[in-house]
Amino acid sequence: GTPNYADTSWLNLNQNIPWDSKLRYPADTTREFLVTVTDAAGCQIQDRLTVVVRIIKDVWWPNAFSPNGDAINELWNLKGKRVRNIKTLNIYDRWGEMVYSAQDIQDGNLNQKVGWDGYFKGKKALPGVYVFYAEIEFFGSQGADKYKGEFTLLR
Asked: Average pLDDT of 26-54?
């Protein structure tokens, strides 16, 4: 039979630090470890182990909104899971004119008071289809992902 192991040590190769005291940690990034197992006879074996973490990056948006003063669907904004920051949100009308631009805002799940109110240059924007471009940063992820889509403004 195989003798029982006496000890196991984990070295986080990404940060070059012992990881024995942190065998439970938030799964927020992929990490590579060097695992050393020592058996009861003192023999050692080492192997590299990669723990792959896939960050779920769900983003959605309403396909229509109606900023008419009834306190329902008054602002248009993106929503998502694990969204840290909407770095850029630009909204364009059907002629390609930018009607709204915002930087570094929270998503609609975190702050329901942020987003486009359906006004352009102080006047109610015309009903119709609008398109958007957004760059979104997520918790546990580097950089920003790009999104684009369309929605309808109802009056």
From this structure: 87
